[in-house]
Amino acid sequence: MTFPQRYVALGDSFTEGVGDWDPGSPNGVRGWADRVAEQLILADASWGYANLAIRGKKMRQILDEQVDAALALEPTLVTLYAGANDILRPRIDIDRLMFHYDDGIGRLRDAGADVVLFTGFDTAGSAVFGKTRGRTAVYNEWVREIADRREATIVDYWRLREFQDWRYWDVDRMHMSTAGHTLMAARVLEAMKASHAIDLPELDARPALRRMEQLRADAQWAREYVTPWVGRRLRGVSSGDALTAKYPAPVHPHRASARA
């Protein structure tokens, strides 16, 4: 089927949809990009949607493996978030990395695609990931500068203060939950100035934990999520090594006509 308008989503776990678990979707996840595509298709059935994002990918992998594949699909719209997995590494040359990022964005824009970019999330509230906050701030300034120069739309994740509420996050505290992905889809469409019919989620009340209860919960989280995450990085493996892209060619996702 030929789609005159084609939306291609590029990136890592954030764009693949990790945290928005859905056994009926490819790779077992749905995510904000799927929800954005569904809204675009509901408004105009000429849209097709491809999602090339794979969890665990670093920026150079995303640029080297996904940009050419996206260009081959002749996209009219591209969303791209890359760099979070690099920022979490022990060493990073942000300036050099962003030179390659700028080149990739330039290629997409030169091909005629509208491009949506993201700043990084403000990790001030995380005892573990808060240590990378300074790196993320530098990365964000690069993203804003490149977005200005390349005339790209920007979703300023850093300034979306709603996401400081941890009820928008999955139990691993690394990925957004279904509620978070739903909210992000609405914010992306709003940044694009596109109408949508997404119902924003109502958050369940979360009882306050006593200090010892919180310490036990933090220790369990570290055992179940942080330790395996660190172990994979020490071994040089990724949770996405055995996965392929959810939608490698433009389609109408099966949920597009079913729900917002």
Automatic annotation (TrEMBL):
Keyword vocabulary terms for this entry: Hydrolase
InterPro entries for this protein: GDSL_Rv0518-like, SGNH_hydro, SGNH_hydro_sf
Span of the signal peptide: none
Pfam family, one: Lipase_GDSL_2
Record flagged with keyword Hydrolase: yes
SGNH hydrolase-type esterase domain: residues covered: 9-182
GO molecular function, one term: hydrolase activity
Gene3D superfamilies in UniProt: SGNH hydrolase
Highest taxon of the lineage: Bacteria
Enzyme Commission number(s) of this protein: 3.1.-.-
Protein name according to UniProt: SGNH/GDSL hydrolase family protein
Protein source organism: Arthrobacter burdickii
